[in-house]
User: Fold this.
Amino acid sequence: MSLSVTIVTPHRKVVHKLSVDELIMPSEAGEVTILPGHTPFLTALGVGVIRTLSQDERIHFLVSYGFAEVRDDQVLILGEDIEPASQIDLERAQKAKAEVEEKILNKVLGEIEYANYLKRLQAEQKRIEVAKQSIGPSSKKKK
Amino acid sequence: MPNLKDIRRRISTVKNTQQITKAMKMIAAVKLRKAQDQILAARPYANELISVISNLVIHGEGKHHPLLIQRKPHKVRLVVVTSDRGLCGAYNGNIIRRAEKFIQEKRGDFKEFKVSFIGRKGHDYFKKRLDPSLVGKIYPDIMKHPSFEQASTIANEMMDEFLKEHLDHVYFIYNEFKSAISQKVVLETLLPTRAKKEEDSQKLQKIDYLYEPSREEVLTALLPKHIRIQVYRILLEAVSSEHGARMTAMDSATTNARDMISSLSLLANRIRQAVITKELMEIVGGAEALKG
Assistant:
């Protein structure tokens, strides 16, 4: 038995019915591991890394504020910003982070705007972390 | 009789115009393809999202979520989606006519009413005709290449105002893309959100989900995403329609130019022939006179 994972963003299908043995995702309340046979489950995702494990491969995805549904061993992950960890552009992430930081510091922001920027800052921060890890010696796609 | 030179000049003018319309048609076709690809890419996301939300709302008590609350329409915003550029047939005209009708009919029912614009053409038209107090914001330079980020910004703004109760209803008027030759003007309610219709709900079987952290919070995470993708979808539909309309308009312009060229060349040839005949007659006449 295995899980079938589909990850969809507004721009594309990141993976379609990928077969894995185990999936770990960052729900807003903490990390959740899904194994085959899981009960139907709905959760909001925070900022973090989705890890999929199968016998010969581990694939990591960066997610910020998504959503996941588990039903009949089908995992559906929806998010506006999900990308494979191996495809993160470190330079771009750093630039984006700097931009957000500047906005937080130099602008007079409303409460909601401020919260939104904080969320984005957190997301960019995580992106940079993940990018640095996957460039480093312990490459994410190792078998 | 028209001068032969003038007619030749006109033919070459029409030919130049034809070249332009032909090129515009091709460009519109390419852009249409791109916009359609974007719609196709966004569709699975939108569909999955709406099915999960409908499931939640129909089977749960999620009806009290702030984004789902139906208030009486006192403060209303109408968003008119037109193109930035012209030369696309009746595309903008249809939208503007529909918007005008809406404004005339409903104006009196609302306490506060404003019209916002995506795309320059609608704004250009209404700013001269409407009471200035009705003309709201214009979101420029979006129709060139609508991105999800831009759609999110617009959607977030609307949600913000809705949650603060500055707005009770938000309507969109845009062209829905049917095919390259047909577009349909649609009036749609963006906020408050409605789940799918009842008849669809029977198809959804009830599933006992485990919610984390809670049903309310899952809904809170999902609804804004849903609204953002709806705005994105509307923009993409509008852009596809625009390019479709432009393609058809330019195609018929090219055909018209061809017809014009052929009738002008016929006229030119006839005149040329007449001139030759006249000259021949003169020569023959002159020769006869000499013989005489």
About this structure: Residues 137-143 of chain A have pLDDT under 50 and may be disordered. The first strand of chain A starts at residue 3 and ends at 8.
